[in-house]
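The following record pairs a protein chain with its ligand, manganese (II) ion.
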Amino acid sequence: MNAPSPRGIACLVRGLPTADGAGVKLTRVIGQPQLPDLDPFLMLDEFGTDNPDDYIAGFPDHPHRGFETVTYMIDGRMRHRDNHGHEGVLEPGGVQWMTAGSGIVHSEMPEQQSGRMRGFQLWINLPARDKMTPPRYQEFAREQIAQLEIHGVRVKVIAGAVAGSVGPVTQPATDPTYLDIELPAGHEFTQALPSGHAAFVYAYEGEARIGVGDKADTVHAHELAVLTDGTEVRIEGGAKTRTRVILVAGRPLREPVAKYGPFVMNTRAELMQAFEDFQNGRF
Ligand code: MN
């Protein structure tokens, strides 16, 4: 067996404040000029505000085809409803892993008039063979997501495996890891990751050192660290305050990407077909 090789930070990216939907203020971290994509990840938005004016307009009806949207709520409640009759409310600590596949039209609207709204939406690409699969949902409330405590570090396992606990989400195409990790001051955590998988750490509270020895570097709050390749990642929380990060990894697809807004296909012809199908009510 080969010795583990620690991953480090390949580059640090700070998100771009923007607005989407009907005027929801958010920070786009993947899917902006500094980091257009990180195959298989197409987009990462962080939303986080105590001001209802920033989120109340929500995301009225809009389509998706050819990829997956993963919404992870930390604070706040969001109601989703699609044109296939699927509806529900995403509560704090819950995740909705939606495989849009051949197409859905849905809305994502705040189920609250005030208070904090905080979380992430990640877009993950699908391989050509899966782009036109029937839409599918994997939805799990907080209590359905394994939460471990390992030497004082709290880890929620949304996808992937930690110390024998397997997250509830499955997606063979990209074999994703999605962990929410809370490190008390001065604590550290090491996670194995498949070599060759694209991986990032996004710090949403505090700051973390990533890597080992003199190759370690710091990711600050609201920065994304793209990781170098390797078999594991060591994350050390800040010395004085608690740190919260998400650690996400997945197998790159290495396929051509033709995308426009909410349609992500392999060719321009498929993109044109997506527009036509959507406009003719075939989602
Ligand atoms: Mn959507």
